Amino acid sequence: MLKRKWVAAKLFAVLGGAGLAFGLCVPSASAQAPTPGNFSNANYANRYVCNLASDDDFYTALTTVFPNGGGTFTSGTMEAPVSAFVAFDPTLPPPANFCAYSLDVAGSSYAVATNGTGVEVLSWSPASTNNPSCPAGFLMSDSFVMRINGAKPSGAVVRTETTSDNLLGEDEPGWGPCLK
Fold first, then answer.
1. pTM
2. Residue 92 CB contacts under 8 Å (≥ 6 apart), including other chains
3. Which member of 83, 124, 127, 132 lies 3.0 to 4.6 Å from 101 by CB, making a disulfide possible if both were Cys?
């Protein structure tokens, strides 16, 4: 029994060493994390979840956007409490106290500058099941800053800081982090 454990341990050590040597010898992927002055639309890709809050009226929104790395989006959603527009009604079921929106990808786009700052215009369409007090739809104009730390091997940035000049179409500024 002891000899079998010794053989297994030796085999494990040999295979582990071979795996380490292989990992060190194989060339790494050609994509690299962005460096200052080297950003592009390609660094803003896949899914980002943003927690945005107004800077004055204390309302919030949770957005999920899917930029495609080429200046447009493939999809997106937004949820916001109805209390941004009317008083909260505790007698209603939970969905009736929220406003849900889908991103109109045809009317939405973004651009990333080489310094890692970007702008986006997001066109939001309401869900048919929304509370009647929810806005019918609106445009949001946002600015964002990309963070280099933690960039994916593909070059996609994992965090942005976003500022909206009209959060929820309310003509009120807002801000918040977005994470991959």
1. 0.76
2. 131
3. 124
